[in-house]
Amino acid sequence: MTIQEITTRKEDQTFDCKSIQIDPKALAITIVAFANADGGDIAIGVSDKTRKIEGVDQHTEKLNELLRVPLDFCNPSVSITSDLLPCTDKDGNENHILLMHIPASSELHTNQADEAFMRVGDKSRRLSFEERIQLMYDKGERYYEDTVVYDATVDDIDMAAVERYTELIGYTKSAKQYLHENNSFITTNAKGEEQVSVACILLFGKYPQKFFPRGRTRFIRYKGTEERVGAEMNVIKDVTFEGTILDLVKATIAYLETQVEEHTFLGQHGQFVTHRDYPKFVIQEMVVNACCHRAYNIKGTEIQIKMFDNRLVFESPGRLPGTVKPSNIRHTHFSRNPKIAQFLKAYNFVKEFGEGVDRVCRELEANGTPHLSFHLDDFILKITVPKVTERVIEKDVNVIEKVIKTHQEVIDKVIEKAVALNEKLTENRISIIKLIIENPYISKSELSKHVGISENSISRNIEAMRDKYLRRVGPNKGGFWEIID
């Protein structure tokens, strides 16, 4: 993490800034919250209110006191690593920032007052007694990804896949060194024998299904709105995907895209409008969620994605993890498999922890569609996504007005943000933002055509707004734009 990233990144599920003057007891709360959730980084020596760089060099005694917080103020102690990053402070002097790296822990941690906290978005939330008991239970299940795979050896690992990942994250040593030095992918037992973890096989295995036969995804399409068997069986497609988790995610999303229908009709402004049965982001997020958060210790079934005429149902082994419930799922996050989640984040399939489901709900709401529904059936979590076009094509006036109102609210927020930054958004830039809200996958050539300026001008306007009003999610080809409001 660079100094620029530290001073510009918003505090979120895995990042926080703290002044060097912070009380050790207050710092302990953030450390405990990160350890109980997905882990995270704390930048110390940066004002969390003004983001001015204070530095830590002039506060040696205080710095040493804060470095002992994970040991002296957390129960049990939290094992962290830390770096001193060189910087220039607010007074123009050479200085350093302390960057604490807190890993996600397999234990439940509390502060000195025996209070348990968990990171939820950009806040450290104190857990109730019931939530604390639930978290203790789920942490045992959570770290199945760290267990050793019986009979698996280093020969079962695709080192080329490891090399692609290390190149992506900027790791410069060998692939095997990475596996030995990170995430306990490869460990050595008392006999000196190398052992391979569940996460390692699922992420980098040559053929993970050798050890996890049901570690796959299966797509089933039904004719009608019910699942029938026997003489009335109504299955019209049944396709299975195997490979590493990255293979599963890519192949499943690609195939689902071939099954999603588009419908074109005359819109309210006399222009033809095309709507998909299911938005692209919804498809991607639901597949990633299923592969990332399934309980791999439940080996009797695979992830099943069932398409009916009026809905998509994602069936994943395992219930909602941790303190996540249907009532709080939009804003509460808990990774059952944090190493798998971190891997997918590097490939841009996970943008920010805890934001995906909320955005799925917002996209469905904008189309006038009911929310996701959740049902637990014999340790299989079933999430139902209603078909969007069932409501849109009805041309319900209230729905159209709601979509327009939602889009206008986003535009108004962006304009308010520009005013707060003492910036003025030109008509062209507002037009670009409007078009991106309507279609996050719109190309620069399409923007050029609609706005009436050259593609080079579109590029310059986008660059001027990037990371302030717009962010790119995913690669240039296949990715999409997201509004920062």
UniProtKB/TrEMBL annotation:
Gene3D superfamilies: 3.30.565.60, Schlafen, AAA domain, Winged helix-like DNA-binding domain superfamily/Winged helix DNA-binding domain. The keyword Mitochondrion does not apply. It comes from the Bacteria. Keywords: ATP-binding, Helicase, Hydrolase, Nucleotide-binding. The keyword Hydrolase applies. Residues 11-127 form the Schlafen AlbA-2 domain. CDD domains: HTH_ARSR. This is ATP-dependent DNA helicase RecG. Pfam families: HATPase_c_4, HTH_24, SLFN_AlbA_2. InterPro entries: ArsR-like_HTH, RecG_C_sf, Schlafen_AlbA_2_dom, Schlafen_AlbA_2_dom_sf, WH-like_DNA-bd_sf, WH_DNA-bd_sf. One of its GO terms (molecular function) is helicase activity.
